[in-house]
């Protein structure tokens, strides 16, 4: 018996064709930079293995992780408040949380600099105890924290909102305090969103450039180093450094995406 040929849905087909332009643009960019490096592999290896490049990649990754750790501490409580409470001015607070997304990165950098410089509201008292942000590692983390915070808070808030309120209420009727209900019910059921928000925030943080150079040109993160190479050594060397970072990001984020599928499986059954 001859099987009938399935005709693709015209709407799905149209959407796929239109949406593929975004994928093609990214693939085209990756192919362009990849072909250039693969055809000149010895040069790429020599640049990518420079200690300055390796140090910049490690610094970027670790600083991004530190920013995510701070977001876990400060962002989760804020996300829970926004998800579970309704108060006057909530829309204003949500808008303030989203401001770093809308602002040009240079403006975000100026805001970070004003806050964390030696004479800033936050930077001045912390400099008294030896924590310096200008031209230092804490400044990089502060800039990454600022620009990536909306991605983390919004993702985690969505996760909290998807946990049925009656589950939390049931825990409280059984004698659990609000914090115990949050820790034992809401938090475990939101792990996937927390993990996803962390990946988004980490990716956003390590990709930042303008906000970081405003507060800490040195030590150089990878985006600053690429810019430095581009302005001093030209396109060939800066492209090799960029390709090295692309490879690292592809490997790291592919692993994280695989791990994410195994996190919060119970969440799907809510």
What report would you give on this structure?
Keywords: Cell membrane, Membrane, Molybdenum, Transmembrane, Transmembrane helix, Transport. It is found in: Cell membrane. InterPro entries: MetI-like (IPR000515), MetI-like_sf (IPR035906). This protein has about 270 residues and is an all-alpha fold. It is built from 13 helices and no strands. It has helices at about 10-40, 40-50, 50-85, 90-100, 105-115, 125-130, 135-160, 165-175, 180-190, 190-205, 210-215, 220-230, 235-260. It is globular and about 65 Å long. The two termini are about 45 Å apart. The model has no long low-confidence stretch (mean pLDDT about 90).
Characteristics:
MetI-like; membrane; globular; transmembrane; molybdenum
Class derived from helix and strand content: mainly alpha
Number of helices: 13
Give the end-to-end Cα distance, rounded to a whole number of Å.
Answer: 43 Å
Percent helix, as a range, is over 70%
Name the overall outline: globular
Overall pLDDT metric: 91
Evaluate the radius of gyration: 23 Å
| Succession of helices and strands | HHHHHHHHHHHHH
Low-confidence stretches: none
Membrane topology: Multi-pass membrane protein
Subcellular location: Cell membrane
InterPro entries: MetI-like, MetI-like_sf
Protein name: ABC transporter permease
